[in-house]
Amino acid sequence: MRKKIVVGNWKMNLLSAEAATRAAELAKLVGFEDSVEVGICPAFLSLAGVSLVLRESVIGVGSQDVFWKSSGAFTGFVSAEMVRDAGCRYAVIGHSERRGRFGKLEVEESTLPFFGETDETVNLKLKATLAAGLVPIVCVGESLAEREAGQTDAVIAAQIAGALDGVEDLSTLVIAYEPVWAIGTGKVCDSTEANRVCGFIRSQVPEAYRDHVRVQYGGSVNPGNAAELFSQPEIDGGLVGGASLKPEDFIQVINAAK
Ligand code: PEP
């Protein structure tokens, strides 16, 4: 039986003091409930502070990205070892917003090449994340144009093959199915289709790890739709953006996974 895992992605929100306050509020609401694994991913600068606040909580902390080199002349980057040192348990890798694939475009289109994550860099980051002893949450998902062209499964299969290339131990791997068109748009994927794609994702994982790997759904999950999504047999929890920012909303999403 796979334990459900619900992780909040706070994206580029909340200054350090507010992040610490919300983490403390969430810890009170979660208590010592351990039937669901819970994590939050604040911005890099809040990782150490939030980790301190949560040191006696069951809630784990995660980074929203890592760089694949452990140290060196890489101005502005943060390594997997560094986020581990800041108290992290998880690292999100390959989020669509880092791949330049936005559900809701809020930057100039001409700047999209800046968001240059590729399947190759996801693969390097996955290896670095595992080497640092972190639990990786690898994000995959199709754009609206890809879905409408009937390419959903092919796009996801290629993303998974690229991410997992040459990675041997997948025992801690979490994969988040995040259709790009559902992220931050309020358009949630139909639960039957989300379940089908999560099952497809599982089928792409090497057989030895297939029953073990946890596949989350992410994309406009909220207190009103979480229970329906999380009751699907192939959906092992959620990666939650907007609805994870308010502890009183996020606890309802977490409780829906029980
Ligand atoms: C996300 O950031 O991974 C996400 C799914 O965002 P939202 O829940 O806001 O759609």
Low-pLDDT segments: none
Rg estimate, integer Å = 17 Å
Largest sheet: 8 strands, parallel, barrel
Number of spatially distinct domains? 1
CATH architecture: Alpha-Beta Barrel
Structural class by helix and strand composition: alpha/beta
Number of helices: 9
Q: What is the level 1 CATH name?
A: Alpha Beta
Number of beta-strand segments: 8
Bound heterogens, unique: phosphoenolpyruvate
Alpha-carbon distance between the two ends: 13 Å
One letter per element, helices H and strands E, the order comes to EHEHEHEHEHHEHEHEH
What share of residues is helical?
Answer: 25-40%
Give the spatial strand order of the biggest sheet. Answer: 1-2-3-4-5-6-7-8
- How does the overall form come out from the CA principal axes? globular
CATH topology: TIM Barrel
**Assembly category:** single chain
Mean pLDDT: 98
CATH-defined superfamily: Aldolase class I
Determine the strand fraction and express it as a percent band.
Answer: 15-25%
Please describe what this structure looks like.
- There is one protein chain.
- This protein is an alpha/beta fold and 258 residues long.
- The chain has one domain (5-248): TIM Barrel (Alpha-Beta Barrel), CATH 3.20.20.
- 34% of the residues lie in helices and 15% in strands.
- It has nine helices and eight strands.
- Strands 1-2-3-4-5-6-7-8 form an eight-stranded parallel beta barrel, surrounded by five helices.
- Helix 8 (226-230) links the parallel strand 7 and strand 8.
- The protein is globular, with a radius of gyration of 17 Å.
- Bound molecules: phosphoenolpyruvate.
- Residues 9, 11, 178, 183-184, 218-221, 239-243 line the site of phosphoenolpyruvate.
